[in-house]
Amino acid sequence: MLDHLIVGAGLFGAVFAAEAKKAGKKVLVLERRDHIAGNVYTEEVEGINVHRYGAHIFHTSNDRVWEYVNRHAVFNRFTNSPLARYGEELFNLPFNMNTFHTLWGVVTPKEAKEKIESQIEEAKASGIREPQNLEEQALLLGGRDIYEKLIKGYTEKQWGRKASDLPAFIIRRLPFRFTYDNNYFNDRYQGIPVGGYTRMVESILDGVDVKTGVDYLKEKDSLEYAAKTVIFTGMIDEYFGRSLGPLEYRSLRFEEEILDVPDFQGNAVVNYTEYEIPYTRIIEHRHFEPENERASREKTVVTKEYPLEWNGNREPYYAVNDEKNNALYKKYEELAKKEENVIFGGRLGQYRYFDMDDTIDEALKLADRIL
Ligand code: UDP
Prior knowledge:
Elements: E1 2-7, H1 11-22, E2 27-31, E3 42-45, E4 48-51, E5 58-60, H2 63-70, E6 83-86, E7 89-92, H3 97-104, H4 109-125, H5 134-142, H6 144-159, H7 169-172, E8 189-191, H8 197-204, E9 210-212, H9 216-219, E10 227-232, H10 236-239, E11 249-259, E12 269-272, E13 281-284, E14 300-309, E15 318-319, H11 323-338, E16 342-344, H12 346-349, H13 356-370
Parallel strand pairs: 1-2, 1-10, 2-9, 6-12, 10-16
Antiparallel strand pairs: 3-4, 5-8, 6-7, 11-14, 11-15, 12-13, 13-14
């Protein structure tokens, strides 16, 4: 009998499994896909480490998590500085003095603040006080110009819902800054694991038994997988057979191309913020690891990211944390509490927008608690 059966070889499952193994427990990781590393999976194409499930840029202010990942990979000094393209215009992200200069020609922080303040006042004058949704939150944070050119179209295609129907917290991830600093994240540490994320997760899972291509929910009753505790990192509603109804998820479709040019866009991430362009961003993988000498000098790999609703066949990427889904999740959480010896973890198990560092932190905390 296993001590812990871990379902899912993504970051949550891998980190917990490794900790349990270190604590002397008998563990097994089961993964439905044919590879480990969940959605941080990378694969080499033309010598370039391709982020197969979208851009993953590691950033954290959590010392424990940063030390943890640095034990399993060397991190380069990549700093995410995405560009936003709206028609023929090109803006720096996150919203900072470079963005404000391009938008309005303002040069000093004082001028930029005055411009934004006057637009926020307009939003308040239209009756918005406590933001009830993403649209109101965006208007109160940066005013109408930024909202209409850089937020509305991108957000509505990413989530497939009107900005006025989405929760405000999504946009609070995006910093506003009155310096000429294009670093997307405010965190103390940032970088990409040299050699790709798959190699990092392989290092985390070193010595841990892992079986890929096994769907636990289909094999649940098999004696081989009997365990004192199951750590389930898949979709919580799927675990319960969607008995209370399905939770909604956003999915993504990736269109990957190998181009016969050494450099396609000169940057790792370019967001397309117009609603009419069906993809949200193009990522060019070579720029995540500019120091990589294996990378082809003649070719480059780019991926267009198309958001779509999850339909049961695709991979789920994001929980849709609107009121309706959160209320349904709460009910599944109640069921989960009654489910003896099963713990739900990770983005899908906890139906939450965890970043990579949050996910690792949660797994380490679970290990602290139960091992
Ligand atoms: N966002 C936006 N315009 C952009 C980039 C982001 O409006 O150019 C908003 C959008 O609502 C998105 C949220 O900010 O859902 C978070 O974006 P981010 O790219 O940080 O999220 P990720 O998909 O990478 O987790």
